[in-house]
Amino acid sequence: MKKLASLLLLAMAAGSAFAQGARPADVASVDSIVAALYDTISGPAGKARDWDRLRSLFRQDGRMVVHSMNKDGALNTRVLSIEDYITRTTPVFAKEGFFESELARKSEEFGQIAHVFTTYEARHAPGEKPFVRGINSIQLVNDGQRWWISQLLWQPESDKNPLPERYLKAR
Questions:
Q1: Cβ distance 104 to 167 under 8 Å?
Q2: Strand ranges (E), 82-161
Q3: Rounded distance, CA 78 to CA 155, Å?
Q4: Are 106 and 134 contacting, i.e. CB atoms less than 8 angstroms apart?
């Protein structure tokens, strides 16, 4: 019984420490957490990203999911933990700049949940032509204290699946 109580206390402390790492301004609103998300992944080649800041935006069980075409043209869905994403992108960001920005947004909120469809474009350097555009679908929850990203699902635009005009209009 003492072991169970100790494990519960440890788990609560870990969850609390995770939540304390967030910048209050990053998680105060849906707008601020989406802006923080774009900010954490963007930067020049070789610039270390603030992965602790990224982690602080997501629930501990949060996921990042990419739905895209593979080299053979078949649709492929990859479900990543935040740590999987960090592991996959760190070597890429060491070699290439990556600047993702929001073009337009459609949002819905009900009670303590929100869904944001945010159209993005990414460049290797500011001012360059975008090399990819697509949609980020972000599901968020508010625990009464702050906003959390529960899941980020994205799909890049393709020749077969261009971005609809309605997702290119500003909020």
A1: yes
A2: 99-110, 113-123, 132-142, 147-156
A3: 11
A4: no
Q: What is the pTM of this model?
A: 0.85
- Residue 64 Cα to chain centre, angstroms: 7
Q: How do residues 154-164 score in pLDDT, each as one tens digit?
A: 999 998 899 99
Asked if residues 77 and 24 have their Cβ atoms less than 8 Å apart, the reply is no
Question: Taking residues 67-81, what's their average pLDDT?
Answer: 90
The mean pLDDT of 22-34, rounded to a whole number, is 97
Side-chain-side CA neighbours of residue 80 (13 Å): 18
* Rg from Cα positions in the chain: 17
pLDDT number for residue 171 = 62
How far apart are alpha carbons 37 and 118 in whole angstroms?
12
Report the distance separating Cα 33 and Cα 31, nearest Å. Answer: 6
Identify residue 166 by its one-letter amino acid code: R
**Cα–Cα distance between 152 and 124 in angstroms, integer?**
21
Is the Cβ–Cβ distance between 137 and 153 less than 8 Å?
yes
C-alpha distance from residue 9 to each of 6, 15, 22, 56, 61 (Å) = 5, 10, 21, 20, 19
**Pairing between β-strand 147-156 and β-strand 58-69 as defined by DSSP bridges:** parallel
